[in-house]
């Protein structure tokens, strides 16, 4: 048991070193949307040499899951050395159809998106200036003071339900997205 703990701690230490060294710039440009981005393949290209240097393998897996009426691709990024394993999971909604894509392409697109976010979570890659973020003020224009921004009230605790600090679920009924074994 103690040996397993040492092996696990070594993997966590090496993951920390990889996270500190890893750089994956957003080198791709979406001319239509006017933003820069990175793809799953960009992250893998940058991280594989670092993992190899530490004797760590990476595995990616997908699963189709349904919550209510919605279908998601659940992607899990896992690193492993021996019996020590660290995983991170992310979800992407699977569209019923997308213009110009057949069914396999729609699934592949959702898979790539979910894998990118699972990898980003595992390797601590920040998505600052993410296209999903609200737009920033133009240069030379001061943003509105925080006191002028109206925010919805945070929901209070649900009676009879325990809330663990740091655990978030994307949608009701979905499992937490970060996990370790």
Helices and strands in order:
Elements: H1 2-21, E1 28-30, E2 35-37, H2 40-53, E3 57-67, E4 70-81, E5 84-93, H3 103-123, E6 178-180
Antiparallel strand pairs: 1-2, 3-4, 4-5, 5-6
What's the Cα radius of gyration?
A: 19 Å
Arrangement of strands in the largest sheet: 3-4-5-6
Outline type: globular
CATH architecture field: 2-Layer Sandwich
Please write the CATH class name.
Answer: Alpha Beta
Annotation field: number of helices: 3
CATH topology: Enolase-like, domain 1
Unreliable stretches covering 5 or more consecutive residues: 146-152, 161-170
Distance between the termini: 14 Å
Counted beta strands: 6
Tell me the strand percentage band.
15-25%
Q: Structural class, from helix and strand content?
A: alpha+beta
Fraction in helix: 25-40%
Count of discrete domains: 1
Output the helix-strand order.
HEEHEEEHE
What does the largest sheet look like? Answer: 4 strands, antiparallel
Task: Indicate the mean pLDDT.
Answer: 79
InterPro entries: ERF_bacteria_virus
Pfam families: ERF (PF04404)
Protein name: Recombinase
Region (Disordered): 128-181
């Amino acid at each position: 048991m103690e040996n397993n703990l040492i092996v696990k701690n070594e993997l966590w230490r090496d993951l920390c070193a990889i996270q500190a060294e890893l750089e994956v710039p957003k080198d791709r440009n979406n001319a239509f949307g006017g933003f820069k981005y990175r793809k799953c393949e960009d992250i893998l290209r940058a991280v594989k040499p670092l993992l190899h240097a530490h004797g760590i393998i990476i595995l990616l897996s997908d699963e189709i899951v349904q919550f209510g009426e919605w279908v998601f691709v659940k992607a899990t990024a896992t690193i492993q050395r021996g019996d020590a394993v660290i995983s991170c999971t992310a979800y992407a909604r699977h569209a019923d159809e997308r213009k110009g894509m057949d069914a396999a392409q729609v699934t592949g697109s959702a898979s790539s998106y979910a894998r990118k976010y699972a990898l980003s979570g595992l390797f601590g890659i920040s998505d600052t200036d993410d296209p999903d973020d609200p737009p920033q003020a133009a240069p030379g224009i001061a943003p509105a003071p925080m006191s002028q921004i109206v925010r919805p009230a945070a929901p209070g605790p649900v009676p009879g339900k325990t809330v663990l600090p740091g655990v978030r679920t994307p949608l009701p009924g979905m499992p937490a997205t970060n996990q370790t074994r």
